[in-house]
Design the sequence.
């Protein structure tokens, strides 16, 4: 097979002064930050579905992308060829990981048996490509939202047969993820939600979703899969309300159904903003619960009300993301997956490189700036001082559970009025952050 990108060589780090659009200005994979290399910190992953299967189509028009390696079929042979293109792209980009849905990499057959056989043929090629290149699978997942059988959902469908088919599909997807040495497996709700409560038994659907995940956990143990399971929060689109609407909703669900020890969260920027949050908010919610697992790196257009999946180019955004990730010890199970797509007008193959280079550079800058802020220490010191009343005296006693309402009332009667609180100094802190963003 001839090269899909013959005019593009290995993307290298050339530094901030470089004017080469096919070079990294800030992402130096070997540069050490807080004791680890950038490559180890960021663990970049390319999403198979957008990079290899995206066509540029939207709700108003057909696809626009020019992909010279495509032959117009959805055959197994085309799938194998496409996999080779993917690994050429990742190799030239220097991305150490990739991620996929099962239906991204292999076509659906006439029935489940043939579909599984198709997947096995492509997985055989993926395994060889991984060995040849050293590129690894960050996580796998199953597409439980595209086919008409899942019109009412998959694990939450009103049709028990759809639940059964979804279980069989996920079983196979976990098996191939395990075979490929995947570091994790993601459950994305897709259509696990409702359009109207008039025809919905919410409790029954949530019970079924929990049962589905418990079955997956049991099977994971049975086959010895060591990868981390994740849930990916998303508030809407395609359903009016999805049960995995944000990080807090996911954590509540996991606690309610005794799954909290088995799944962490895969947080996406565009999903957080659709939920009315910042990415940093959902990361903090997950991190404070010990459930921060992995991230999907993208951004949305705040003037549009849907999941636009744009590549991240906002250094302030990536700085905030990396401040929180470093705060909670960095990635221990996941990485930075570019669940992002080039714009419909960016139709040439080289645009895939421009997009990923920009995203990787933006995260590299965010990482470096976050590390500098942490080293400076003023931000952390301010937060610690703001809560210093909890470190001694009555505050420390409350945190240690040594007092009740009776003792607190006695303390309040002696104390009199509450002393003036410390200023939050939001403007000062925003100015402080801006000192580092250059």
Sequence:
């Amino acid at each position: 097979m001839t090269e899909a990108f013959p005019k593009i060589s290995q993307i290298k780090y050339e530094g901030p002064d470089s004017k080469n659009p096919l070079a990294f200005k800030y992402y130096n994979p070997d540069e050490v930050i807080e004791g680890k290399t950038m490559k180890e910190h960021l663990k970049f992953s390319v999403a198979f579905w957008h990079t290899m299967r995206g066509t540029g189509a939207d709700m108003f028009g057909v696809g626009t992308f020019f992909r010279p390696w495509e032959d117009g079929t959805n055959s197994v042979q085309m799938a194998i060829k496409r996999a080779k293109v993917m690994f050429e792209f990742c190799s030239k980009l220097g991305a150490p990981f990739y991620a996929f849905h099962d239906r991204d990499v292999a076509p659906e057959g006439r029935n489940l048996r043939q579909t599984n056989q198709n997947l096995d043929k492509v997985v055989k090629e993926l395994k060889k490509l991984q060995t040849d290149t050293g590129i690894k699978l960050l996580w796998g997942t199953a597409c439980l939202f595209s086919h008409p059988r899942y019109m009412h959902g998959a694990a939450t469908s009103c049709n028990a047969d759809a639940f059964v088919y979804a279980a069989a599909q996920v079983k196979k997807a976990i098996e191939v993820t395990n075979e490929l040495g995947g570091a994790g497996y993601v459950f994305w709700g897709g259509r696990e939600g409702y359009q109207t409560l008039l025809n919905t038994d919410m409790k029954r659907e949530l019970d079924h979703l929990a049962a589905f995940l418990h079955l997956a956990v049991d099977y994971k143990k049975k086959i010895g899969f060591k990868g981390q399971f994740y849930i990916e929060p998303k508030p809407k689109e395609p359903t009016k309300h999805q049960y995995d609407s944000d990080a807090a909703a996911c954590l509540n669900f996991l606690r309610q159904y005794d799954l909290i020890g088995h799944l962490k969260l895969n947080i996406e920027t565009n999903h957080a903003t659709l939920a009315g949050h910042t990415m940093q908010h959902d990361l903090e919610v997950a991190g404070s619960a010990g459930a921060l697992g992995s991230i999907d790196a993208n951004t949305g257009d705040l003037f549009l009300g849907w999941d636009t999946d744009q590549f991240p180019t906002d250094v302030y955004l990536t700085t905030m993301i990396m401040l929180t990730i470093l705060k909670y010890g960095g990635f221990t199970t996941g990485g930075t997956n570019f669940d992002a797509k080039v714009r419909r007008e960016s139709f040439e193959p080289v645009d895939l490189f421009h997009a990923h280079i920009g995203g990787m550079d933006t995260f590299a800058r965010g990482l470096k700036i976050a590390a500098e802020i942490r080293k400076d220490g003023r931000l952390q010191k301010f937060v610690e001082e703001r809560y210093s009343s909890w470190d001694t005296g009555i505050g420390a006693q409350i945190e240690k559970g040594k007092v009740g309402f009776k003792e607190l009332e006695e303390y309040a009667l002696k104390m009199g009025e509450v002393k003036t609180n410390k200023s939050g100094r939001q403007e000062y802190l925003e100015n402080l952050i801006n000192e580092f963003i250059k």
In short: The radius of gyration is 24 Å.
